[in-house]
Write a structure and sequence with these properties.
102 residues, mainly beta, 4-stranded antiparallel beta sheet, 3-stranded antiparallel beta sheet, disordered N terminus
């Protein structure tokens, strides 16, 4: 689920950052527990997704469903490919991404 403009008490709680618009992942600035909100800015809009897994501080979460075998982008570049399906809000790390580029 994607929610636009997440606000708490009139203040937006941005806790993740998208480096390039074509990136498939955001980096969380704080640990986010499964079911918690991950909020970031894309094209001047605040977007909130729910964490499908526990995401440790400074680690990556998927901003879209990523199919097994698809390339994964961060910094606007391919950082590897998915070794299994990764759902929106899923934890993206060495257990499900290989740094071998197709």
């Amino acid at each position: 689920m994607i929610i636009l403009s997440n606000q708490i008490g009139g203040h937006t709680m941005i806790n993740a950052f998208l480096i390039q618009p074509k990136d498939d992942v955001v980096t969380v600035a704080e640990t986010v527990c499964k079911g918690g909100d991950i909020t970031y800015v894309q094209d001047s809009e605040e977007i909130t997704i729910q964490a499908a897994d526990d995401i440790p501080k400074y680690h990556k979460a998927a901003v879209r469903d990523i199919k097994c075998g698809e390339n994964v982008h961060k910094y606007g570049e391919v950082i590897g490919h998915a070794t299994e399906d990764i759902c929106l809000g899923g934890y993206v790390h060495a257990h499900n991404v290989s740094d071998r580029v197709h």
